[in-house]
Amino acid sequence: MAYYEEDDLGHFSDMGKHRPDLFEKFMAWYQACQEDGALSRREKALIGLAVAHALQCPYCIDAYAQSCLESGSNMEQMTEAIHMASALRGGATLIHGLQAHNSVNKVSM
Amino acid sequence: MPSKVLPVINAETAFARSPVSFDERVAGAGLSLCAGTVETLQVNVGKLCNQACKHCHVDAGPKRTEIMSRETAEQIIEAVRRFRFQTIDITGGAPELNPLFRYLVAESSAAGAHVIVRHNLTVMFEPDQDDLPEFFREQGVEVVSSLPYFLEQQTDAQRGHGVFAKSLEAMRRLNDAGYGMEGSGLTLNLVYNPVGAFLPPAQSSIEADFKRELKARYDVSFNRLYTITNMPIKRFLDYLRRTGNEERYMRKLVEAFNPQAVAGLMCRSLVSVDWTGRLYDCDFNQMLELGVAAHLPQVISDFDPTQFFARTISTAAHCFGCTAGAGSSCGGSVVNNQATV
User: Is residue A33 part of a domain?
Assistant: First the structure.
């Protein structure tokens, strides 16, 4: 992965060098999202892991795999979350088949 | 002698190259690390153990020969009687393998101290150890036992093949003796260590998981679960280096520094004594041979609590392990809520 460097994750704050006001707003919101609320930090970390896989962002996968471990999830739970992301991606692809069917049906006798 | 010499933190490690020392980081938070009254004497009887866990900061194992002599044990008991420590916390290695273990427990208990034994569970199946639950009960010992996870794969990965099954059998025997059972007054606490190079989860959260899963899957019970951070010393440091995780783990500990953890650090209320009678501020310093301040008595036979009160603690980069996140001590996390890191 020539365009992704593991160390970049630790330099995320460099994005605040230009328009720091916008970066600070983002970080305040981002951090608040992680806290215990109606969902626990552990549940949020598992959601983050699933979304990271759906987005296929290597930084996010690395960060949320660690967050899951450090909030007490095990590999079975993390793998189930990844399967959820995969299932949603697969299901979303498949249901778009109806669009193709509709398109074909529209011009067919 | 040890089969091989494992690395300790020194000036060559990535951790030591951290731009800010532990003392500077503490001072930067407007704090200082001084001891209060010595309440606990932690006694490390030596490095002999029936297990060789991958994260062990002692580098303990079956081939180690460093164990406490009768002369040192008697000096410790003399100090216990004279200075009336609230708690005697006995560790190793597997302390039960030292022939003087039961003497230390019985005499400490008779002197009125609360006795904690760091019991690895599987030592119960070694020769002449099968009556340990009854011995612990007779002496009113608090048992603290490592069980890194409630599943076999993770536990055996850290502590050795077959350890999980033996540990559960030992817990059943302890439960049968009343340990960990509600209303018995006999305490069995467990210790969670991360199975790898990451920080522990929030103690209350993982304790609830352990209680639910161990009861449902194996019908065993315990009182409290302590989360303890893996310290980058000896065998765990060796693991970090072999796997290329050293720099990342060290950075994680430093970045997770939590000033709120400083007040509850165990070194503030504890003195550690090694198998030869030398004194340290904690068991980790002991393994790094980082002694108490030079002007203080250096051995248990010269111990004087008035001189140890308000002493400055000897620190090094490994101390970031005790202040990361929710903090870490022999009694688990030291702040209630996991810090945002």
Answer: no
Domain membership flag for residue A78: yes
Q: Residue B123: which domain range? A: 15-323
Checking if the pLDDT of B280 tops 80, the result is yes
Q: What is the pLDDT of residue B3?
A: 40
Render pLDDT for B53-67 as a digit per residue (tens, 0 to 9). 988 999 999 999 999
Nearest 10 degrees: Cα torsion A71, A76, A79, A84:
-90
For chain B, the average pLDDT equals: 92
Query: In this structure, what CATH number is given to the domain that contains residue B149?
Result: 3.20.20.70
| Chain A interface, best mutation among B149, B254, B340, by max A CB count within 10 A | B340
Kindly indicate the confidence band of residue B338, based on its pLDDT and cuts at 50, 70 and 90.
Answer: very low
We report the CATH number of the domain holding residue A62 as 1.20.1290.10
Q: Enter the pTM of the model.
A: 0.87
Number of domains in chain B: 1
Q: Give residue B15's pLDDT band: very low, low, confident or very high (50, 70, 90).
A: low
Is residue B249 assigned to a domain?
Answer: yes
Token digits of residue B75:
């000096």
- Nearest-CA distance from A9 to chain B in Å? 12
β B270-273/B114-118 pair status: unpaired
Domain that holds residue A45: 39-109
Domain presence at residue B19: yes
Greatest CA separation found in chain A? 60
Minimal CA separation from A91 to chain B, in Å: 32
Chain A partners within 8 Å of B201 (Cβ): 42, 69-72
What contacts B173, CB < 8 A, 6 or more positions away? B124, B133
Residue B339 lies in a domain: no
Cis peptide leading into B92, omega within 30 of 0? no
Q: Is A35 in CB contact (< 8 Å) with chain B?
A: yes
Q: What integer pLDDT is reported at residue B11 of this predicted model?
A: 39
Q: Which two tokens stand for residue B180?
A: 């960990």
